[in-house]
Amino acid sequence: MFGLKKHHVKKEKHAICYEILDAMKKTGCPICNILRSLEEETIKYMLYGQVNDPAVRRKLRESLGLCPYHAWLLADIVRGNPEIDLLGPSIIYEDMLRTYLEEKKDVGECFLCSKTREFEKIYVEEMASCISIDENMLEEYRKSRSILCRRHYEMLLENLDERLAEKLKTIQREKLDRIMHNLAEYIRKQDYRVKEQPTYDEARAWLDAIIFLKGERVSTNIYNYGKTPPRKRQRRGRLFSL
146: which strand partners? Predict the structure, then answer.
């Protein structure tokens, strides 16, 4: 599991390679999709059997019941799974609210964000190791519908030797050129004079562009960890004004 207990399940190298290859069969970033799955599995595991675990409760108290992203992910999981009893989240958040009222403590880091960062590093490094062991993984990536998001693509480049990094750059450029082509074709086919209908890939190209540039929906804290954005002078004006 994702690390609620102090135990470490070390997967065999080939098992992680197959897990990444399996994630490549889906659209989107394979690393992001693995991380999102781990986040969801951890929350379900916690709700099913660890609500009253003292160690888990301590971790939850540190961030008053997870960060906003993971708290709402928990809510979505509860609402989307009728088999999950509402008693679990009620017990958790009764304790979180009591902690706030009685202790007025500062909010610390969400343990799920910490674990997501930890596993992100592990999976990127393992993907680089898998590619180094068997370059066919790069060919599988080339043929797949998946695309590494910018963050995980750049992290992966840093973990590959120069030759393999160049091969990955070539493949990634091919994928980005395909997205650009699909975007251009979708826009072209909106002209009333064009009789062709957009393909599925053309219609979803804008989503593929978001996935590459911004990644999938995983903990936003992994992107900002350790960075302090410069303060900007606040201006009065319309909402969302530039």
Answer: 28
Q: What is the pTM of this model?
A: 0.82
* Helix orientation angle between 162-188 and 136-143, rounded to the nearest 10 degrees: 10
Q: How far apart are CA 112 and CA 115, in angstroms?
A: 5
Token reading at 68: 């906003």
Give the residue extent of every domain in the chain.
11-159
- One-letter amino acid for residue 51 of the chain: V
**How does pLDDT run along the chain (242 residues), one tens digit per residue?**
445 444 334 455 578 899 999 999 999 999 999 999 999 999 999 998 888 899 999 999 999 999 999 999 999 999 999 999 899 999 999 999 999 998 876 788 999 999 999 999 999 999 999 999 999 999 999 999 999 999 999 999 999 999 999 999 999 999 999 999 999 999 999 999 999 999 999 999 999 999 999 998 887 666 554 443 344 444 444 444 44
User: DSSP assignment of 86-144, as one string?
Assistant: THHHHHHHHHHHHHHHHH-PPP---HHHHHHHHHHHHHHHHHHHHHHH-THHHHHHHHS
Give how far Cα 169 sits from Cα of 161, 174, 200, Å: 12, 9, 26
